[in-house]
Amino acid sequence: MLDRALYLQQQGYQVNVKTFCEKQLTPRNILILANIN
After folding, report:
1. pTM over 0.85
2. What does DSSP assign to residue 12?
3. Handedness of CA 5, 11, 16, 20 (dihedral sign)
């Protein structure tokens, strides 16, 4: 997942990585927010 965030950043996006729910609910609780600069 961090490789995806790094790729987006290298392509000119402003990237934020956050959690959006409790890990007990789902192990895939990471959200990648990307905005083009």
Report:
1. no
2. T
3. negative
